[in-house]
Amino acid sequence: MLNNPLVRSFRQKSTSTQLSIIVLAALTLRLILVACIFRQTVDPTDHFDEFGWEMGWVARSIAQGHGFSSPFWPSTGPTALVPPIFPYFVATIFRIFGVYTAASAIAILSINSLFSALTCIPLYFSTRYAIGDRAATLAAWAWVFYPFAIYFSAARVWDYALTGLLFTTCFCLAQRLHRQRRVLAWLGFGVFYGIAGLSNPSVLSMFPVFLILTAVVLHRRKEKWLAHSLVATLGVLAVLTPWTVRNYRALHMLTPVRDNFWLECWAGNDGSTFESNDRWAHPASNPTEMQRFESLGEARYLAEKHTLAVTFIRQHPVVFLENSFRRALCFWTAYWSFSRAYLADQPTQIPDMFFSIGLTIFMLVGARKLWLRDKTAALPYVILMALFPFTYFFTHASPDYRQPIEPEIIALVSTGILSLKRFNRPALKANQQSDDEQPLILSTSA
Question: For residues 26 and 144, what is the distance between their CA atoms, to the nearest angstrom?
Answer without folding.
Answer: 4
